[in-house]
Amino acid sequence: MKHFLLRWLPYNGHLYNFCKSYVEKHDGDCNGDMETNGELRVMRQFLPCSSVVFDIGAHVGEWTNRALEINPQLQIHCFEPGRDNFTKLAAGVQSGQVVCNPFGLSSRQGEQSFFIYRDAPGLNSLYRRRGLEDGWGLETTHETETVRLDTLENYCREKNIETIDFMKIDVEGHELEVFKGGRSLFAENRVGIIQFEYGGCNIDSKVLLKDLFEFFEGTAYRFYKIFPDRLKHVPRYDQRLENFKYQNWLLIGETAGSRPGQRGSETVTPENARMKRKRQTAREAALVEDLRRDIRTLAKPRAATDSPAESS
Question: I want to staple 231 with a disulfide (CB 3.0 to 4.6 A). Which of 45, 99, 222, 224 is the partner?
Answer without folding.
Answer: 224
